[in-house]
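Homework help thread (please don't just give me the answer)

Our assignment gives two proteins as sequence + C-alpha cell strings and asks us to describe the second one. The first is just a warm-up. Here they are:
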Amino acid sequence: MVFSMSFRKSTISAFNMVQKGFRPLVLCGPSGTGKSTLIKKLFDELPDSFGFSISHTTRKPRAGEQNGKEYYFTDKEEMQSQIDRGQFLESATYSGNMYGTSKRAVEDVQRAGKVCVLDIDVQGVKQIKKTITLDPLYVFVKPPSISELEKRLRERNTETEESLQLRLKAAQEEIEYGEQPGNFHLVIENDNVEKAYKKLRDFVVSEIERQKGLGASTKCRFIQFIYAEQLI
C-alpha cells in the first residue's frame, strides 16, 4: 500500500508537469551578443513552436510601440504591488525604470502550446533559479571577446562613452557567470550567426523531442495506473 501511494503521487505529479507544457527557454547574455537576432531566426523558422514572453516596464512607450506587443506598460506603484504579491518571476531596475517578467506572461504562451522564450539578464536568471516555478532551459550567448563586443556596441552608435564603459564592465561580469560550469545548459559563442543559430536550434529541437517522448511515456504510465486502480 505504501508503495502504491508513493507511485500514485509520483505518477500524478509527473503527469501534471507534462500537462503544463514544454519547459521555457531562457536566453541570457550581454547586450550586443546577438540574442535578438538568434531569437528572431528561431521564430521565423518555427513560428508555431515558440512564443515570446512580453515583459512589463514602467518606462513610457516609444514611438510606434503598443501596449501588449513590445511591452506591457505600467506604473511603478502597480508593478511593485504585483511584485510584492508574488506575480513576477524576475524584475530589475535600469535607468530608473522597472522591467520584469510576470508569471502570467509565461503561462499565456504555454497555454497556446508553445515553448516560451525569455530574454533576460544574469540578475533575472539568478532570481528565476531561486524559484521552482519554471524549470527552464538556460542558454548563455557570449561574444568572441570583449574587444569584439566593444566594436559591435560602438557600431550601434547608441551609447555615450560613459554608458559604453558601464556596459562593458557589466558584460565582463555576465560572461564570467555564464562560463561557470552548471549555470547554463548550453553556452554559445556567437562569432558566426549561422553557426550559433544552428547550435541553438539543434539543442532546442532536440529537447522538445525529448520532452514529447517523456510526455507520451508519462501519460501511458498514468493511464495504466488508473486502469490498475480500477481493478483493485
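The one we have to describe:
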Amino acid sequence: MSKTDLVPRRTQMADIARMAGVSSSTVSRALSGSALIPEATRERILELARSLNYQVNVGAANLRKRSVQTVGVVVLGDSMQAISDPFILNLFGSVADALDDQGYSVLLTRLNDERRSQMQTLVSSGQVAGLVVIGQLTWHEHLNKLFHAGLRFAVWGAALPDAAYPVVGGDNEQGGYLAASHLLSRGCRRIAFLGDIEHPEAGQRYAGYLRAHREAGIEPDVRLRQSVLFNEPMLLQVVQEWLSQGLSFDAVFASSDVAAIAVISALNARGIDVPRDVKVVGYDDIDMAGHVFPSLTSIRQPTRLAGQALVNLLHESQAGLPRRSVILPTELMVRESTG
C-alpha cells in the first residue's frame, strides 16, 4: 500500500455537487452566499459542506472575483430602437466613462423579448460582475421578478411607483410638460403626440403633455396620438394619413429627436414648412438636434450625469443598500423648429 493510499482524499466541490444533486457551479454560488440560489438548496449545500469539513479556498475565491472586472450594459431593444440610436450611444458613452474611471471594462449587448433569460445568465456565468440596463420597454414586471430573485442591476428608465429595482432617469413627466407648454405658448392648439405610451418613459412624457393641456383648458385630439416609429418612410405615412383624413395640426411633439427629425423631413416632402406651418419639438437633445435645418427644439436629457448615477446605484444594489431612484432634471432647449 502506498503512502498516498493512507492519506484521505480532500473533499472536492464536485463531491458536494454529486451528493446534493446539483452542479458544481451551483455549489460554488451557494457557498459564496449568492441570493440567486434558492434558500432551501443553499442550506442543504452548506450543511453538506459542514458535515464533510469542506473548507472554501478564500484566496482562490477572491482571485476569481477580482478577475471579473467587467460590467454588462444591456440595451433593451425592439424593432423600433437600436444600439445605433444617437441617444443610446450618448448614454452608453456616459456609463462607459464612469466605469472606466473605476477600472472596469464594458460588455455591451442588446436583448429582445426572445432573449430575456440571457440577462441573468450574463451574471451567473461569470461573464460580468454586474449589469446596467438601458430602457424598460415592456420589461418592467420581468425586471421586478429578476430583482426579487436576487439579480442586482441598475436601470435607466422611468421611476415607477412599484419598481423593486433602482432607477436613474430624466424627469419625463416634467419634460413632456415643458414641451407641450412651450408649443401652447407659441399659439399652437392642435398638438400631435408621437410616442408609444405602453413604454414607461413615453407614457410619462404623454402625462406631462396632458397636464399642460389641462392647465390651458384644451382637450387634445386623441386621433393625433400615434405610436412612435423611428424610420422616415413610416413617419411619412403617418403624416400622409393625418392629412388625407383632414386632421389639422399645428405642432408635433415627438418623444425622441430621431422621430422629430424624421417628421420634419416628412412634412417638408408634403410642402409643409417648419416652423411656419407646423412647429416641432423633439426629446433627448442629441448632438444632431442643433445641426439639422431647421435646428430642433428639444428636451435635454442629462446623459452626462446619468452614467455616474447608474454606476453608483449598481454598487449600492450589490452592497445590499436600500433601493433608491434618482430623477435628473430635464431642460427645454429652444431652437428654430418652434420659431
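TA reply:
I won't write it for you, but here's a hint about the kind of observation we're looking for: Residues 200-216 form the longest helix (17 residues).
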